[in-house]
Amino acid sequence: MSTEQNPVKRFIADVDTSIKKSEFADWYPIVKKEFADSIRTRALLLLSLLYVGVMVFPPIVILYTDLGGSAQGASAILITLTPQILSVLVPLTAIALAYAALSGERQNGSLKLLLSLPYTRRDVVMGKLFGRFVAIATPLAAVIVLQTLVILPELGSDLDLSNLAALTVVSLLLALSFVGLSLGASAATSTTRRSLMVAAGVWVYLYLIWDRAAGGIFTLLQEHASVEQATALKVELFVKLVSPIASYNTLLNSLSGSMSTREARIAMFRGLGGLLPTQKEQLAAQVLQDSVPWYLTDPVPVVVLLFWCAFPLFLGYRIFNEADL
Amino acid sequence: MAAIELDGVTKQFGSLTALQGVDLTVEEGEIFGFLGPNGAGKSTTINILLDFVRATDGSATVLGHDIHEEPKQIRARTGVLPEGYDVYDRLTGRQHLSFVIESKGADNDPDTLAERVGIADAIDRKAGGYSKGMQQRLVLAMALVGEPDLLILDEPTTGLDPNGARLMRELIREENERGATVFFSSHILGQVEAVCDTVGILQDGRLIAKDSVAGLREAAAGDTVLRVTLADGDGTDDVITAIKGIDAVSGVTVDGNTLSVTCDGDAKMAVLNAVEENGREVANFDTEEASLDEVFAAYTESQEQQEVDA
Fold this sequence. Notes:
The complex is a heterodimer of chains A (325) and B (310).
Chain A: H1 7-21, H2 28-38, H3 42-55, H4 57-64, H5 71-98, H6 103-108, H7 110-115, H8 121-155, H9 161-188, H10 192-224, H11 229-241, H12 244-255, H13 261-266, H14 271-274, H15 279-287, H16 299-322
Helix pairs in contact in A: 2-8, 3-5, 3-8, 5-8, 5-9, 5-10, 5-12, 8-9, 9-10, 9-12, 9-16, 10-11, 12-16
Chain B: E1 2-13, E2 16-27, E3 31-35, H1 42-49, E4 57-62, E5 65-66, H2 71-76, E6 78-81, H3 93-104, H4 110-117, H5 132-144, E7 150-154, H6 162-178, E8 181-186, H7 189-195, E9 198-203, E10 206-212, H8 213-219, E11 224-230, H9 237-244, E12 249-255, E13 258-263, H10 268-277, E14 282-289, H11 292-309
Parallel strand pairs in B: 3-8, 3-9, 6-7, 7-8
Antiparallel strand pairs in B: 1-2, 1-4, 4-5, 9-10, 11-13, 11-14, 12-13
């Protein structure tokens, strides 16, 4: 069987065999099928081009044409800007690629072929989750590497590898969150239209409402419930942190080495996508001066990101499992 | 052990009752034709067997496994051609077959399977570009993966040309000879008549008949129409009286010198004898056996009649 000479192919074959023998074997073929299918979609191709357009070409313009200023200043801007861009692009990519994963198959009937095979509905959901995640993770990781390669000649030894690793890992975690979220929406609904409405609706809500609601809670608690200002602020910070997008940004700040955990949480109060200092930021700096409470430490955003994958997926699965197809 | 056993299966979609207490046993090794007009509940029954749809009441087992508790064990040993499926447009025929082979842990060769259903030359093309008939052949090949003990085929000849339909019948016979039980649904009698051992007729969510093909034909008010042309058409009253005197005869009509006698299939000789005993000469006779189509119509109409009476 494995008389394959090419070491890469042999390695892939070995991984393939070991996964087949593991506990993931139940749904592993679905992962492969999903990956093979998604990687051929036009949506993924377009989104990959978008990644390149946003992440790779602008640095080339800034660093290697007259337009940009000093290389150091330019790369500093890039390092701040990249997470901002990804925090928008990654959720949208994940939604675009996963919202129809189940409802689409249900709508056109290919789900019947899938469920005629020895899979439970749970196997199907799990296989889809990982298949779609890998399909998104591949271009995402590739474009981060590509951007680094583009910046490398100018940055040289200034390149911070831990920064790069943090960016990659946390971005993948954000992708997982939104794949889980939109797959949950896909599982819970019977048409792609409805799944898109649910998934995109949650995204818009998180973007437009969540952060502001957190600010409103602060005012409400402080002015109308006579809660101490420091407590109200910690509550606001925690509520903010429960959004996967806020969690992504602040986790990236504290893991990339440019900020401490404390600074990263305080920076959550910055306006204009982390660029504009605000009054609340100063207040937060006072409140968190001595210590950062456990519910604002780094493991919390990690849990938040995983929660946004697992909880909608679990709810969606429960509905899907009872549904008549 | 029965391959399929339904016990009082009822399914309601909102206020619509799709199935009403269906009891059905399909024995191992038989080819079972599941017959009924469109909308009778055939696909709902199959969807319940595959756990796509959950029964409101009643229970069922397939290959000895409860349909809701152990669907995975059932699917591991069953090949399915579902109704209203769609293939994965972006994947090739080979990718489809390899996926099924891997999913079932089987060791079939995709090329051999494609050959069996006649799509060998298209196996490396994307299935989205296949014609409806080719997609049907592909899904049939997928159903054959792993030599399943049971084949469940929902309207398998839909979208197939006559050659395809013949191939389907051949494959059904081959698989049955190998030892597989075949359960397939159709609203076309010719398909069922040609290959089935046993037929079940479903109408308005109820199983109104289950019998062998021959048995059904006999049971459906059975009747053979015997047309006797007399050499001389005058004064047929005596003959008619004599024929009506035979127990197995249910009716006689006269048209010129032709008598049309509706009777049980085995009463034909008695009728002809009665004609000759009355001194008449038979110039010609032929018989017309009820086709399964008429059987089907007779069954479904009598069912409707009972409903009106009730």
